[in-house]
Automatic annotation (TrEMBL):
Record keyword tRNA processing present: yes
Source species: Virgibacillus alimentarius
Name of the protein in its database record: CCA-adding enzyme
Sites where the protein binds CTP: G28, R31, R112, D155, R158, R161, R164
UniProt KW keywords: ATP-binding, Hydrolase, Magnesium, Metal-binding, Nucleotide-binding, Nucleotidyltransferase, RNA repair, RNA-binding, Transferase, tRNA processing
Miscellaneous comment: A single active site specifically recognizes both ATP and CTP and is responsible for their addition.
């Protein structure tokens, strides 16, 4: 079934064709269409040079003209349109030193990583399959296009991509391909860390991640990954049957929970993660630790940002499978919370200073508010000025 995005993509291809240019769907979108999987981004390869593409369409964003790539906006969708190309040598293993644009799709497909990613499809749904990609899709095999050693030295990220695809699709890696991966694996160290993080994020979100992790172990490719290279025991401590984790913050929390010796901040720095991922990992770990001592309660759901509830539940499924799923309980508890934040407390710092007029300002103010907050959230005291004042009189703060 062609999605709306595909139908809009067909119109882009149709328009290029009507200007006498060849154009095809290529890469992951063709693979995923044939596998009946949800389609991510749609890539189009064309014989038209980037300048021509810019002339043909109204809305074109020149994201990587030097590599022949522009983004065409059509019907509110984005299409990465790339001119057929043959890459030159890769001195930095990331950007080819030169890109030669060619007029045929064959050469373009030849430079791609795996047979299952080297399929092209024209606007009538006719597939161009020069390397047995369809057969490999049927047989569930990941195999390089041509010589594996060459493909992996061109871009060693492809080694991790092979493992990522096995974890996403449940495919086995062809024997020669696997050998070539082992030959080139040391070069993974030279890759930009963000690129590795992107692929490993997709691996851990894969439905068959245990297969991918098995490959990481068997090939010892994990010895070339940030942090894991220095703590090789970590990978072996991973639970045997993991469930997919949909964000890298969850994955960091998983690793930190099984190996607390490595601080979260070290993961974040070594894997070049965003602040958002860092916050997510910290919140999830705090919640897991609290859960270990107290189980689920209102304080846990109050402290944990609700966007992380399902991630927390996924970690519970790993570490406390008998308690899974816990998200419904969390959602029920959050609806019953007496307050949503500190601001809702019936007493604030100014009130506290009125109660203790002699006391100087200091950390005691914040500490007292925090204690009140927890008592109220846990339902041990009612959130009224009177009861909070009474509680303070019975539990006078240490003024500091
Ligand atoms: N190191 C790489 C990265 C990409 N490609 C080619 O570029 C296509 C698009 O790359 P990308 O979007 O990164 O991967 P997809 O295969 O599309 O997977 P996803 O669904 O995750 O986007 C791939 O299918 C593959 O043909 C490649 O040959 N070598
Ligand atoms: Mg893609």
């Amino acid at each position: 079934m062609l999605t709306e995005a595909f139908l809009a993509g067909k119109e882009v291809i149709d328009k290029l064709n009507s200007h006498n240019h060849q154009a095809f769907f290529v890469g992951g979108c063709v693979r995923d269409l044939l596998l009946n999987r949800e389609i991510g981004d749609i890539d189009i390869a064309t014989s038209a040079a980037p300048k021509m593409v810019q002339n043909i369409f109204d809305k074109v964003i020149p994201v990587g003209i030097e590599h022949g790539t522009v983004i065409v906006r059509h019907k509110q969708q984005s299409f990465e349109v790339t001119t057929f190309r043959v890459d030159g040598k890769y001195t930095d293993q990331r950007h080819p030193d030169e890109v030669t644009f060619v007029s045929a799709v064959d050469k373009d497909l030849e430079r791609r990583d795996f047979t299952i990613n080297a399929l092209a499809m024209d606007m009538n749904g006719k597939i161009i399959d020069l390397f047995g990609g369809k057969k490999d899709l049927q047989q569930k095999v990941i195999r390089t296009v041509g010589d594996g050693y060459e493909r992996f030295t061109e871009d060693p990220l492809r080694i991790i991509r092979a493992i990522r695809f096995s974890g996403q699709l449940g495919f086995f890696i062809d024997h020669d391909t696997l050998q070539a991966m082992e030959q080139v694996k040391k070069q993974i160290k030279n890759l930009a860390k963000e690129r590795i993080t992107q692929e490993i994020t997709k691996l851990f979100a894969g439905s068959y991640l245990n297969l991918g992790i098995d490959y990481l172990k068997r090939t010892e490719i994990y010895k070339n990954l940030p942090i894991i290279a220095q703590y090789p025991g970590i990978i072996h401590k991973l639970p045997k049957s993991l469930k997919p984790l949909y964000s890298f913050g969850e994955t960091i929390a998983l690793f930190h929970y099984i190996e607390p010796q490595v601080p979260i901040i070290n993961w974040v720095k070594a894997w070049k993660c965003s602040n958002k991922i860092k916050q997510e990992a910290i919140q999830l770990i705090d919640a897991l630790r609290y859960y270990q001592e107290h189980q689920i309660d209102k304080w846990l759901v109050y402290q944990l940002d609700s966007v992380y509830y399902s991630g927390f539940d996924r970690l519970i499924s790993i570490f406390h499978p008998e308690d899974y799923p816990i998200e419904p309980t969390m959602k029920k508890l959050v609806r019953e919370l007496p307050i949503q934040s500190k601001k809702d407390l019936a007493l604030n710092g100014n009130h506290l200073m009125e109660i203790f007029p002699e006391a100087p300002k200091g950390p005691w103010l914040k500490n007292t508010i925090n204690r009140l907050e927890k008592e109220v959230v846990l339902g041990r005291i009612i959130n009224t000025k009177y009861t909070l004042k009474e509680w303070i009189r019975c539990n006078p703060p240490e003024i500091n």
